[in-house]
Each structure stands twice: as C-alpha cells, then as structure tokens.
C-alpha cells in the first residue's frame, strides 16, 4: 500500500497531470527491469501528459486516468470546482504558489452557495487546491482522498509486473468532462490494430454494489457497452473463480464515453473496485476488492 499512498499524496487535478506523469515515467524507469516483460514507452511530444506502455503483441488496451478532482482560485477568495468534488465547509485544501505552501479551509456561502477558502492571505487566481491527504490503512480497508483514480493507476502499474501482451494507456482530463482518450484511441487503433478496452477506474457503492464483495463489472452506467464483449469478460471471471459484482446504473461515466463515440469499432467495459464516500477526502475501499481487481485484470489481459 506504500505505492498507493504515494499516488494519493500527489496533486494532479484535471489539466495539471504533469506531476503524475513524471511519477509514472520515473516509476517505470526504476522498476521495469524487474518486470517479466519490457514495454515500449510512449510519452512526451504528441502525447501531452499521457503515458502509453506497449507490451508484446497487444490485443487489449487498459485505460486509467491520471487526473483527480479539485478546486481553482477564481477572483478574491472564491473557488470554482475542477470536476465534481463533494463540498463541505471545513474540508482542508492544500496547494502552493510563489509565496509557499498553502493549507486552507473550504468555505461555502450559505446564501449564494459560492465556494471559497479561509487562509491568512489572498491566493493568486488560477491557484489549484486539492484535498489534504489523510491516508488511513487498516487490516481490511484503505481510506484516503483520490483513490479515484489513484487505485486505477496502482492497478495498472501492478499489472505491468506480469503483463506479456497488452497496452496500458494513462489518460488525462477524465474528471472534467473528457480529455485525451480520443487521440489515444485513434493512435492505438491505427498503430496496433487494438479495438477492445478495459476501463481501469473506480465505481460507487450503491444499493446493489457493496464493499468487500469483489471487483465490479459494469453492465451499464449512462452508456451501454456491447453485451457480447461484456459476456466474454464475465465468462473469463467466472472460469477463473474471481469474486465479482455486476453493476447496472443509469448515471455516471468514464473514459469509456470517448470510446463509445469513437469512429473506430471499440469494444469497452468498465472494470473496477467499488468505493464509498466518493469524491470526498474520505474515499473508502475494501482490500478484498483491490485484490479482486488486480487478479481480474491479470486474467483478462491473458485471456481476452
């Protein structure tokens, strides 16, 4: 869990994924010699802040977004949201500017519902703030801000340890209305002929999805994947004996929305652990679901 804690402590709100990109590239450089197979690393010019790792002769691409929700200083002491964070007066927000480190409190105007901050000085407009990380681990759970989607990134990096054939695509901008998946999808399709994808992200605990009962295979959210592809994934999970839950929702979305609308014939399915307290400083995930998620990705990348 040390790697997961490190990821959760890195600030990378949508539009400013650079710190996460740098960490992922450094992690790959330091660890790939111990992996069973070596990837081609695609990053830099032409990829913005994305990172693509290509292993062997890929058949499937895994998409995991690097960005998180957060806040940006507007004018005066006002804030605007980046993505859809839950807001509660008193939440601790952190960041930095030219004058140093920032640790302030979120405020909410009761009359106008305007977001703001309480701090000893006024912050420059455009300053980014994120939830202060309080990483808590027990024998059975992990609780922190930004498990969405640092846990998806963690799973993808751990998957690299054994992956022989496949593509890991670390995308940007997912939390704020879509981002870099369109050009990544076209690049991957044009250069490798890959047209089936798994969305390595985190979903919600609901009335039908619970902590500790396994990784979630989503039959639908606001979008509906092709049933033939989803049934293949379910069959592989069943044959492997991996505990999974099935999700049926009519709201929510992910990087999949860009694949659904792509000109190429992409198949996709959302596969990820459920979490409680979504988009708060106190996101909660069960370790059994983390283990199920990693095990399922390992078998899916072998079998699909």
Automatic annotation (TrEMBL):
Domain of life: Bacteria
Name the UniProt record assigns to this protein: Aminopeptidase
Natural source organism: Hymenobacter coccineus
Database matches in Pfam families: Peptidase_M42
One Gene Ontology molecular-function label: metal ion binding
Similarity comment: family membership: Belongs to the peptidase M42 family.
InterPro entries according to UniProt: Peptidase_M42, Peptidase_M42_aminopept, Peptidase_M42_dom2
Keywords recorded for this protein, A-Z: Aminopeptidase, Hydrolase, Metal-binding, Protease
A GO biological process held by the record: proteolysis
């Amino acid at each position: 869990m040390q790697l997961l804690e490190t990821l959760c402590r890195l600030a990378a709100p949508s539009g400013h994924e650079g710190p996460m990109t740098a960490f992922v590239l450094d992690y790959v450089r330091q660890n790939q010699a111990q992996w069973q197979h070596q990837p081609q690393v695609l990053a830099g010019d032409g990829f913005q802040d994305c990172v693509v790792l290509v292993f062997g002769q890929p058949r499937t691409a895994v998409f995991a977004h690097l960005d998180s929700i957060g806040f940006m200083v507007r004018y005066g002491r006002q804030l605007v949201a980046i993505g859809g964070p839950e807001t509660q007066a008193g939440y601790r927000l952190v960041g930095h500017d030219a004058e140093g480190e920032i640790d302030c409190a979120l405020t909410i105007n009761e009359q106008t519902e305007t977001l703001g901050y309480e701090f000893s000085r006024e912050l420059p407009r455009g300053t980014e703030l994120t939830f202060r990380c309080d990483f808590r681990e027990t024998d059975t759970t992990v609780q922190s801000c930004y498990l969405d989607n640092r846990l998806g990134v963690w799973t993808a990096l751990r998957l690299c340890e054994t992956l022989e054939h496949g593509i890991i695509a670390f995308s940007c901008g997912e939390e704020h209305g879509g981002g870099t998946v369109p050009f990544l999808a076209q690049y991957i399709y044009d250069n490798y002929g890959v047209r089936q994808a798994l969305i390595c992200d985190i979903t919600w605990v609901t009335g039908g999805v619970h902590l500790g009962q396994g990784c979630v295979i989503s039959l639908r959210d606001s979008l509906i994947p092709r049933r033939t592809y989803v049934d293949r994934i379910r069959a592989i999970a069943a044959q492997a004996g991996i505990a999974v839950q099935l999700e049926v929702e009519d709201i929510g979305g992910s990087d999949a929305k860009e694949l659904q609308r792509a000109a190429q014939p992409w198949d996709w399915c959302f596969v990820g652990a459920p979490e409680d307290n979504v988009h708060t400083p106190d996101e909660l995930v069960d370790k059994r679901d983390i283990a199920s998620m990693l095990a399922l990705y390992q078998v899916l990348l072998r079998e699909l």
